[in-house]
Amino acid sequence: MKLLYSPGACSIGIHVILEEIGAPFESEKISLRDGEQFQAAFTSRNPKSKVPTLIRDDGSVLTEFPAIAYYLANTHPAAKLWPEGVEAQTRALEIIDYVVATIHMQGFSRMFVPGKFAPSEADAEAVKKRGLEIFETGLAFLDHALAGKDYAVGPFSVADAALFYIEFWRHSGKLALPTHLAGHFQRMLARPAVQRVMKKEGLG
Known about the structure:
Elements: E1 2-5, H1 11-21, E2 26-29, H2 40-43, E3 53-55, E4 61-63, H3 65-75, H4 86-112, H5 124-145, H6 158-172, H7 179-189, H8 192-200
Helix pairs in contact: 1-3, 1-6, 1-8, 4-5, 4-6, 6-7
């Protein structure tokens, strides 16, 4: 397998899952800042021009965080990254979808690429403000959901890898995380797999 990633992007969550399952894989850094995701070398593999992108051993390509996380967890059951039981599985999917579709795509994206949402340049600051509101509301909700828990849904799972990437973004912005998310983030940083990812991506 090969992971196409950009340092510190949402692909860091999939990078963590790959390290956790322990299966051999390669990684290829893509510079989003330099627009490499729009160049033919990338679009020939993923025309969506986004990370994470996973190239499987048979050459087929998987895209989208939830799909890749599901595939990796369920094809490597020994790692026990997919929760047991319908209720826990449903809650894990609920968290992943909320992180990706709401906090990331609706909140964070408005904050950092307001042009995709603003009718005109004059609206950019209002769009950023709304993005921050969505991001903050999402963090508060997840913080409440983590009260009294070490991890998102029982033992460590793919849901925690999703939480980690937005926690990392908040931390990178030098802004404090809510109490329970802060504790979760520190537990994640203590995991050897996460430490390997941080080193490989040049983040710590």
